[in-house]
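Problem: given the chain below (218 residues), write out its structure.
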Amino acid sequence: GPSGRRMSTAVPPPRSANEGVASLPDAPVEPASAIAGASETAFIISESPTHARFINMLMKDGKKQTARRILSGAFDLLRRSGHDPQKIFRAALDNARPVLEMKTMSKMQVPYPLGPRRAEGQAMKWIISAARKRTSSGGMSAKLQQELLQAAEFKGAAVGRREAVHATAMANQAAAHFRWRGSSDKAVGAVDMDRKSFRPQSVRAIKRFQGPMRSIEQ
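Solution.
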């Protein structure tokens, strides 16, 4: 042309089939732990409801952080000895968890079935109590580690208490029918007038109870 410029003969690149189509946003990536950047096991104790309940039972005088350190120390000792702390903890609770408990009713011991949550609480109490009674050195973390390890192997004082309760329940299974009769030793269906609810407690209730009786006597 007159300006001396030459036209480009480059071929434009082919258009993509998805060109012009809006791309979907990438799905958000969930962090591996409760706080982004933390390790996967950093908050495993505080995130588990079972561990949180165990810490609350282990706590004394409101010192929750001390109870956390004790349980974390017991888990560290288990890990150093080549055990999986979570498996040992769950196995210890399962082996120490009772199925029955004994209640005094009608002047005798009556076996009662336990719900899952109460049974788990009893197992935790027995494990903690047995750990505190140990005389070994190393602090409470070492004592708790030893008791958890023994309970996981179906040994120790906590499992012994469970077996003692079950043995007592089996010896008193003949009294199991008293569960449906409340605290009365009367015949089934009879009205127990000795129950506290039938006794007048206050002066006004006594006068109200004696009023009809006086009119009958007159």
